[in-house]
Request: fold
Amino acid sequence: MDEEKAALAEIPLKSSPRHLTSKLFASLAAFCLAGLILASDRRPSNDYPQVPLQEPVGTVNISPCPDQDDLPGSKCGYIVVPKDYNDPSAGVAKIAVGILPALTSTSKGSVFFNPGGPGGAAKQRITKRGDSLRAYVGDDYDIVAFDPRGIGETLPATKCFFDFFSYGDFKRNTVLERSYEFASNFTPEELRSTILLQQRETHALLETVFETCRVTMGEELKYMGTTTVVRDIDFMTKALDGPDALINYYGGSYGSVLGQYLVNMLPDRVGRVAIDGIVDAKLWADKPPYQWYSQWLVETDNAYGQFYTGCSESGPIHCPLAEYQGEDPAKIRTRVESFIDSLYYQPIPAPFAKIPRILTSGRAKWAIQFALLVPSWWPKLSVSLTSAMNGDPADLLNNSDFYLYRDLERNSVTCNDVPKFAPPSAEEVTDELLNVYQNVSRFVFSVVTSEPDSGCQYWPVTPPERFTGPWNNTLRNPMLILSSTADPVTPMASALKVQARLGDSARLLLQDGPGHATSSLPSLCTSRYARAYFTNGTLPPKDARCKPDFTPFPSSEVSISRFSREEYEILDRISGLNEILLHARGNSGW
Ligand SMILES: *[C@@H]1O[C@H](CO)[C@@H](O)[C@H](O)[C@H]1NC(C)=O
Ligand SMILES: *[C@@H]1O[C@H](CO)[C@@H](O)[C@H](O)[C@H]1NC(C)=O
Ligand SMILES: *[C@@H]1O[C@H](CO)[C@@H](O)[C@H](O)[C@H]1NC(C)=O
Ligand SMILES: *[C@@H]1O[C@H](CO)[C@@H](O)[C@H](O)[C@H]1NC(C)=O
Reply:
């Protein structure tokens, strides 16, 4: 709701009352987008505000952070970099940074941090809560969070929708927000024709969005790719730590893509680099997004199965979906899935949710898929699902009412990274998704919505530089790779691939159990290895594995009192770190 209010508050004064009315109408109903555009008379225009960037390249303007809730000692500001490293005439970009100085008397340098997305703003999160990163990064580095190109406070920003209504308004109640609708009892023919219609709608929506971007932002869109962000990290390391300083970095999820680009583009500049929750950067750079899911989702149904096993073991006190402790997990699952199917035929009104809307089957699957990312959310998910099954979907909707992106921040990274490809037909995309649905994961149609990378075939610009490998360089210092064994969106298999390519230049540490990136289920063992790596350069032994210190659902065997005060503080920090990784993307749920 904050985002909604913010969006309303942002309507420029020059907007006519008629526009405001339209805006409210859009928030409340938004069933008729075409009609809305006609009625409001607001068209995207090409007067994208050029940022007055007068300061010269290399300017570092950093001072104590201004807000009451900024951490003591934290510093805020920006670094001016070339907008285009290949073309000085393109002007400059201003990278917003937030810095938490080392806790030790002498700093070993900067560790740059990326929280994922792409599209995640890091600066504010770090200056307000970033001390939790020390659970992995240790005490002796300055933690440097920056809002990457096109994101957060960095300029130029991605503002495809800057002047009429938000991307959230545009998507509301379309397939891009509701997710794909179908029931599990469809015949293959019914399923294909149902998905195909929705895929055609998706294509039309995405073409509209990207054409809008072309008109509002034009060539400004081409500077947001990962390759350019690597150049920024290099530039900022030199500016902050000196010309010979090595680059240190920690990133999760999409941050693992940025990390792989970084070490392979600049192998001789690698200091300490750790990545967690691994996306295969080669797949990312080589294939259109709709061809990623067959590799992304190989553990999703595994994690989903663990949700029901954990629920059964824990019983109704922590998982009210179970009728009794030890109930057959398959029975619990059948009840939930029958309910979701029933939503296809009869959605439930939710007038008292944060945003009045309806609970559809696509939306319910999306909420589950999203909650699978973080095992500590599973008990709340089970409570929300139970309420929905009892007729009140507000809690489920409230908790999954996330607007990941204000605008096209995510696509402006993704689409500058992927190769140019001929627009696939709706049939081609549908068949690829159905293949994944049948052979890999039942959540593929939710992921299309929750990880919105689609539509790059309509991307209107070409980045100045696009790194495409090699991905197997010999690094100056080895990189640390972290992965959960049952990560529902960035599977262990991707981590194994990255490790295999880099050989002795990387060391993989696996953490047993579900969850997106290791911090989603805290483990003292994992944090010890990560800190030993950053602090002393010590790698975990080959084939090292850690266990989490918690189970997703509370278990009678795990009692907080078995931890020392210090251990408890570290576990608490890992939870904070996980929140930064997940919520930096703009999520407000669970
Ligand atoms: C959902 O959010 C609305 C608005 O914040 C609130 O009034 C309502 O009580 C919430 N419902 C539940 C079940 O949490
Ligand atoms: C699932 O995989 C099999 C074997 O590769 C393939 O023949 C089949 O067509 C796939 N299913 C779908 C729906 O594409
Ligand atoms: C890196 O990968 C390329 C392409 O797969 C291969 O040709 C090359 O031999 C590899 N280099 C090393 C050092 O392993
Ligand atoms: C780094 O090495 C020193 C000396 O062996 C050791 O005392 C310290 O605990 C190590 N630090 C971490 C974080 O592992």
Observations:
- Confidence is low (pLDDT under 50) at residues 1-41.
- The chain is about 40% helix and 10% strand.
- The longest strand covers residues 92-100.
- Residues 138, 531-532, 535-536 surround 2-acetamido-2-deoxy-beta-D-glucopyranose (ligand 4) (CB under 6 Å).
